[in-house]
Design goal:
With 93 residues, the chain is mainly beta. It is built from one helix and three strands, in the order βββα. Strand 1 and strand 2 form a beta hairpin. The longest helix is centred in the middle third of the chain and has 8 residues. The protein is globular.
């Protein structure tokens, strides 16, 4: 595991569990684990229109003068927000 330069929160999540950023505010972001299969995790990020969400490897490539188009297709799907209330769940490690 890569050593982090500054303190961070580390979450353990199972399928259908999520993490909230700025909960209850107008710019709330939810990151939800949809599926875990072998070494891949499928995440859904729900964020307001004005918040940019970008995979970190694309940001690094963009900073190195490559464009996101040169990295191949990106699977991004816009989904309607659900009407299900978001209830954070905290579980001890």
């Amino acid at each position: 595991m890569e050593r982090l330069a500054r303190p961070h929160l580390v979450f353990l999540r199972k399928e259908e569990q999520s993490v909230l950023i700025n909960p209850g505010s107008a710019d709330q972001v939810e990151i939800k684990v949809i599926k875990i299969k072998r070494n891949r995790v499928v995440l859904v990020v729900q964020a307001p229109e004005g918040i940019k969400v970008l995979r970190s490897e694309l940001l690094c490539q963009t900073n190195n003068q490559q464009t996101p188009e040169s990295t191949g297709p990106i699977n991004v799907e816009r989904v309607k927000p659900s009407n299900t209330p978001i209830v954070p769940s905290v579980q001890p490690i």
